[in-house]
Amino acid sequence: MKVLPLVVAPLLATGVGFAAGWLCKPAAVIPSAEGEEVPASHRSGAGTGSLAGDPTSTRSGSSAAAAPSAESIERYFASELKSLRGLSDEEFATRMVDVWLAREDAANLLSKAIFSEASDGKKAMAFYDEFKRRKGLTGHEDAGQPLWYFMFTAGQRNGAEVLQKMMDTHPQGILEVDTIVHGWITREPSQAVEWLNSLPEDCPFYSKALKGIVWGIGEMSPPAAVDTFLKLPAEERNQKFESLAGGALSGHGFTGLNEIAALLPSDDDRKNLLMNSLPFAMNKSPSEFVEGMAGHLPM
Questions:
Q1: Is the pLDDT at 23 greater than 70, yes or no?
Q2: Which of 3, 87, 165, 223 is the most buried (most CB within 10 A)?
């Protein structure tokens, strides 16, 4: 068993989120602030087959109608979440993919948000498998950025359960395993590291999972990331400069990248860090890029 030399105490969990969802009952009714029921047919989006409509809108054509109260909206969404969570994993996945592949508008985004809130680890992986199936892709082929965002959030919400289900159904791992682990370590660092250390020596996705760990630590605490990085075996360390640089830039910008560069022991390490940072650094504005990299350029 490999043991990751990580002290998780200094890590600060972050709260980045991405949402996805589906409303079960297109004909749902929300009580207004005055106790009057506002049927879905009087709200925008009703009858689309994907979303009951905006629960904050008033009865169509009636300027005097009161908007739903905060309490009624809360009850409404609680009811929708309960209905979604009661679906089988397969039915949940089918409906969620329908929403994911539909035209994106305000109603669709709200629908995605509720679906994400309703998904546990098993439902998240059922959605993943159904989405890839409909796209004609395997678990090792890229389905695009929205799926990466969702799997990151699934890791934040239910990292242990998502990864257990992944190992049950995809023993060779999946393309997004590092993204799931990245999400998990931002919420539960100790548990994520313990899981990584429990993987067998010959685990086919160990290195990819470690990539997510290093990225997440770099995002939260550059000094802790360097401490972990320098204790890795040489073959793993040489493959993780990209994660170290990407995590630091994502969480702390050039300040984090420069902090890591200053803590690395050799010029070769700093060169590798900076070379691997370029794909991420070039997404910054020209002025940020020049200012951030200026200290590393030969004069």
A1: no
A2: 165
Closest CA to 69 of 45, 46, 38, 40: 38
How far apart are alpha carbons 238 and 232 in whole angstroms?
9
What is d(CA 126, CA 124) in angstroms, rounded to the nearest whole number? 5
- Tokens for 261, please give them: 């560069």
* DSSP character at residue 163: H
Q: How many other CB atoms sit within 10 Å of the CB of residue 220?
A: 23
pLDDT (tens digit, 9 = 90+) per residue, 53-101? Answer: 444 444 444 444 567 788 888 888 899 999 999 999 999 999 999 999 9
Q: Give the total residue count for the chain.
A: 299
Dig out the tokens for 19 from the structure.
Answer: 């949402």
CA distances from 8 to 75, 197, 213, 218, 251 (A): 38, 14, 11, 12, 17
Cα 23 from Cα 114, distance rounded (Å): 7
**Residue with tokens 């590798």, as numbered in its chain:** 272
Mean pLDDT of 124-151: 96
Which one, of 153, 168, 174, lies nearest residue 21 by Cα? 153
Cα angle vertex 246, ends 244, 247, to 5°? 65
Structure tokens at 118: 């309703």
Q: What whole-number distance in Å separates Cα of residue 68 and Cα of residue 56? A: 6
The amino acid at residue 285 is S
Place of tokens 């004609």: 136
Distance, in Å, from the CA atom of 113 to the CA atom of 100, rounded to the nearest integer, reads 11
Q: What is the torsional sign of CA 195, 171, 209, 177?
A: negative
Distance CA 261, CA 270 (A): 5
Per-residue HEC secondary structure of 192-243 comes to HHHHHHHCCCCCCCHHHHHHHHHHHHHHHCHHHHHHHHHCCCHHHHCCCHHH
